[in-house]
Structure formats: structure tokens, C-alpha cells
Amino acid sequence: MRAEVELNLVEVFWSAQGEGPQVGRSTVFVRFGACDLRCGWCDSPETWKAARQCRFEVDPGSGEFESEPNPTSVGRLRRAIEALAPRPGSLLSLTGGEPLLQPPGVVAAARIGHELGLKVAIETHGLAVEALNEVIDEIDYVSMDWKLESDVRWAESSAVGPDFQTGHRAFLERIRESALPASVKVVITQNSTAEELAEVCRGIASIAPDIPLILQPVTPHGRVRERPSAKALLEHLRRCEDQVAEVRLIPQTHRVYGAL
Ligand code: SF4
Prior knowledge:
With 260 residues, this protein is an alpha/beta fold. It is 27% helix and 25% strand.
């Protein structure tokens, strides 16, 4: 008998997508627990460890939640998504934490999304190629990060993965093979250098030149006090445009109006 899939989740809620090319779209977010990276600017460090409790938004956009212990069942996740009454064609975002640490959970969540007529997007650190292979047939859109070593390291508790350049290149090659719609996101801080971004651009241009590069200025939050200057951001945009066909500078919009 096949074992029932269990999920470690942090929260399930509805909002407008705040980042990237899908910005503004009506979205149900399923935030998975645990992450094996430590980004200096992470805006959800509460997701770094597997969560004891998962909270489910009661009504869409209400900000009112009920909490239950993890692990969560597939049936409970389905009820949580249905309670948010997503419109057919809107987005189901599988995010984290790092969702690809739980491939069976990603597959289960994506199937629920498709049964409800939703488009399924995954937001990932873009390094877990083997896990991507397990879920890729269930996903409609991939938003992969490309980490800059000036701000990101592997968690001390993780089985350390590949260096970021090697890992991201392999991940992007798999996306290109699949022909899935995708984008690459780089979070820009005051530490980000032109050399680091040039390496990202070389990777995209050589592997998947049609995939858009999203430059996302860090949002001051927690330990991050400063944002990069507008001048620095625009200089990064110009330089990246010289190497990648489609580059967009898009900040986190949900922070502007105070959403989660
Ligand atoms: S990969 Fe995402 S969840 Fe993990 S530390 Fe970085 S920003 Fe946070």
C-alpha cells in the first residue's frame, strides 16, 4: 500500500502575487517549511526549520488564520485551498522555505491546483535539480532564484550542495529542456557586484536566452537596513541588458501596500 503523502507547511493564504513577471495576479500561496540555504536578506526566516504548526487563512485576504500541528495531509491542504475560493485560471504559488525539499508534497499540491483549474507556479532557490525532475510534469511555471555568493550560503545543517554557479546552470538547463515558461530572479543588495551579475547573465545567455531576468531590489526588513541606490540599480539594469534579451527591474510590490 502506498504511504500517504504528508506535508510540512508554514501557511496557506490568498493574496496578490507581489514579485516577478506574474506581479498583481490573484494567487493562493502554499508556503512549505524548511530551507537549506541562508540568504542574508531572507524575508521569511521563520521557514528555515520545519514548522511545528501550519496556519490556514480562514477567508481570502482576511489575514485571519487557524493553526494546526504539522504534518498536514493532502486532504487538509485541499480543504484549505478550496476555502480560499480561488478563481479558475488564477495562480497557485508553491513557495517556501524551499518547496523542492518536499517533492511528493509539491506534486500533491500541484495536482490539487490543477483539479481546481489553477495555474501552478513554483518559487525555488533553483539548485535542487533531482527534485525538479520529480515534479516538473506537474508544474506550469518556474520562478528560480540565482543566488549571489556575496549574500547567500548553504545552511550549516544541510548536506552542502553544488557551488551556486554550477547548481543554477544545471537547474536552468533542465528548465530549458522542459520548455516550461520560467524566469530567473536575482535579489540585489548593496553587496551585489557587477562581476556577480555578469556571471548570472552569461549563464542565462548561454543556456536559455529567452528566459527573462528579474532584478529585485532587496526590501529593507529584519537585518537588512538599507536598499541599493536607484543609481546602482539602474546601472545593473543597463549592464544586464547588454547580455540578456529581457531584463526587468521589479521591486516587491506587496510590501508597498502592507500585504504579507
Ligand atoms: S532560499 Fe528563500 S527561504 Fe531559503 S533562505 Fe533564501 S530567501 Fe529564505
